Amino acid sequence: MTDRIGPPLDQIAISDLRFRCIVGVQEEERYEKQDIVAQILLFADLRRAGRSDAIEDTVDYKALKKQILAAAERSQFRLIEALAQSIADICLSHDRVKRAAVTIEKPGALRFARTVSVRIVRDRRDRDA
Q: Comparing C-alpha atoms, which of 55, 54, 59, 56 is closest to residue 44?
């Protein structure tokens, strides 16, 4: 079976999305929400939206942001990798999103470091597998 090569994908970036949630392995990290910063890059074919100028033909990033914040703020993950996967899954639940790159930053997680981050890239095929 071979992959069909389609048109190149366009990108929508959501930069520095800030929220608070429970995330961490240590006992003291399990009681209070911590600051998290997310970088989200969505890959989609936006040609139709460019021609039509209609929200129905693109990714409604405002609605997506609301979904991500609602899910993240009520979550309780031990690993930022799991938080990133959860956000990628939300992104890929939108039909037009074919791939999502999610970077999760946990400021202050390490002494002498501004932040610790993990970046994952997930494809719609990963979600359907």
A: 59
Task: Establish if 55 belongs to a structural domain.
Answer: yes
Range of the domain at 47: 10-128
Tokens 């390490």 sit on residue:
110
Number of structural domains found in the chain:
1
User: Which of these, 49, 65, 67, lies nearest to 57 by C-alpha position?
Assistant: 49
Q: Is residue 53 part of a domain?
A: yes
Assess whether 106 carries a catalytic annotation: yes
Among the listed residues 62, 65, 66, 106, the single catalytic one is 106
Helix (H, G, I), strand (E, B) or coil at 49: helix
Q: Name the residue among 108, 90, 110 with its Cα closest to residue 100.
A: 90
4-50, pLDDT tens digit by residue?
566 789 999 999 999 999 998 888 888 889 999 999 999 999 999 99
Give the predicted TM-score (pTM) of the model.
Answer: 0.89
* pLDDT tens per residue across span 47-101: 999 999 999 999 999 999 999 999 999 999 999 999 999 999 999 999 999 999 9
